[in-house]
Amino acid sequence: MSREALQESLSAVMDNEADELELRRVLSAVDDSETRATWSRYQVARAAMHKELLLPQLDIAAAVSAALADEAAPVKASRGPWRSLGRLAVAASVTVAVLAGVRLYNQDEISGVQLAAQQSAQQGVAVPQVQGPAVLAGYSESSEQATGPMANGVLQGQAGWDNQRLPGYLRQHAQEAALKGTESALPYARAASLENR
Amino acid sequence: MRALPLIPLLLGGWLALPAHAADPADARIATLFNRLAQAEREQDFQGTFVYERNGIFSTHRIWHRVQDGKVIERLLQLDGLPQEVLRVDGKTQCVSGTLVAGVGNTPDSSGRLLDPLKLMSWYDIKTVGETRVAGREVDIVSLKPRDQHRYAFELHLDKDTGLPLKSLLINDKGQLLERFQFTGLNTQAVPTEQELKPSDNCKAVAQVPPQAAEALASWRSDWVPPGFELVKSYVRKDPQTKATVSSLMYDDGLARFSVFLESLDGESVTDTRAQLGPTVAVSRHLTTPKGDMMVTVVGEIPIGTAERIALSMRAQDVQTKQ
User: Fold this and answer.
1) CA angle, B305 then A167 then B103, to 5°
2) What is the CATH code for A3-70?
3) Is B135 left (phi over 0), alpha (psi -120 to 50) or beta?
4) Residue A162, Ramachandran bin (φ over 0: left; ψ between -120 and 50: alpha; else beta)
5) Structurally, what CATH architecture does the domain formed by B6-204 represent?
6) pLDDT tens across A147-195, in order?
7) Do the beta carbons of residue B272 and residue A162 sit within 8 Å?
8) How far apart are CA B50 and CA A178, in angstroms?
9) How far apart are CA B249 and CA B219, in angstroms?
10) B5, exposed or middle or buried, with CB in 10 Å at 0-12, 13-18, 19+?
11) Domain covering B212-321, topology
């Protein structure tokens, strides 16, 4: 491979205009110290042209290569099946999310158990139940989304009756509970939290 | 069909009860709960706590003083709106902000205490260890539901005073729904008159006459989860929508839910489900001899349970005619 061709390819890579062949050419030559030096010079030139010249003494690529060389190679055999399983899981959860969204949106018969199951399929970590994408699919509120009383909740169904009534009912329930008992400050805190918008 | 698996559970709960009471572990639970109740009645304290539900986090101050046998308690939100409540002996004297029309003190509203014997029928109560909260030693008490109709609680009770310093609500997947937790507690400094004095924002709470008969006469429930009892019911007129709303509130000694019934007057609406942290809201359209109604269940219960409760509401006339 001629020096010139390589330099052209280097330039193309730097300008983000390299085709696959050029990229391969550069990658295969990148271990060569002369190529690296050329690359470094090109970067300086480019930076100067863009008026962003800094001292380009940091050869991060070399440091990364050294670190990689020191690291034990991962066991390849175990990686294959897990990766494909992972992809499958992602695909499955996307399907579940889509299905769940459609089902919720259509107001099908769906029990809490099913809902919970769908959500847990999507989220492995312990986060509050209502943050799954499935429920967001059916979430319908327009401009008030960020500030409305339902902002952090889940509201399925169309805007209208329930948008007027539900916040009122939620408040009434919370306030009744807060007025009712003194066993702790918890009902008060719930009611106060509902007013925070 | 859904009730079938419940039967052994219920029987199990009832049958197990006498044995539970005799168990030394349960005696310890009873002692902890009694200390909690006693602390609320007799302990002076002030402190700061946080409340968190999904995405919402707020901080609050509490002043609690016992004076001539009367418990005076003032709560103030420290961030955002300065929301405030003043209570004397369990009766709310004033609140900041606006209350929903019809919400107020009734002559029967009073302080309610955790009754371990009642709770043991519906929750498996255990002490599960000890840790620290707000720099104080606490006992951890877990309350796991014996059926799928309520959430689990975890209470952290101060070893020194018995006060509840932390309370977590957890669903059947083990996900945290809300957190109430003290970050600082002082039991030495007695709150002063000044600290217990409400601000001008705090508006007096009206005394509301009980109207239980009216709401109860019109509606009944075919099914509520076992252990839940009606604690309050009334009818109110919404000043904005002019609609008449019947409200029923149920309680199992720890968890609560409300049922709201409202006539639709030909309005077309969709069934709705919503969840805000610990609180679920389910609206269901119901056709009754009195016309089309919307039943809304709001409470700290699982969504499936709320749905079933909503579907189980009946107009009372149906029964009297049959």
Assistant:
1) 90
2) 1.10.10
3) left
4) alpha
5) Clam (2.50)
6) 333 334 444 444 455 567 888 888 888 888 887 655 578 888 888 888 8
7) yes
8) 16
9) 13
10) exposed
11) Phosphorylase Kinase; domain 1 (3.30.200)
| Phi then psi dihedrals of residue B150, to 5 deg | -150, 165
B249 touches chain A (CB under 8 A): yes
Q: Measure the CA dihedral A93/A98/A104/A109, to 10°.
A: -70
Domain ranges (residues) in chain B: 6-204, 212-321
- The SS3 call for residue B58 is strand
Domain ranges of chain A: 3-70, 76-138, 145-197
Give the Cα separation of A131 and A151 in Å (integer): 12
Structural tokens at position B9: 């559970």
Q: Write down the ipTM of this complex.
A: 0.83
Interface of B with A in 12-31 (CB under 8 A): none
Place of tokens 């992602």: A90
In sequence order, what are the residues at sequence separation of 6 or more whose Cβ sits closer than 8 angstroms to the Cβ of residue A22? A8, A9, A12, A13
**Does B198 contact chain A (CB < 8 Å)?**
no
- CB of B269 within 8 Å of a chain A CB? The answer is yes
DSSP B150: S
Model confidence over B153-164: pLDDT tens digits? 999 999 999 999
Of B46, B98, B50, B100, residue with least CA distance to B74? B46
The alpha carbon of residue B38 is apart from the nearest alpha carbon of chain A, in Å, by 11
Read off the pLDDT band of B108 (50, 70, 90). low
Q: Which two tokens stand for residue B79?
A: 């961030």
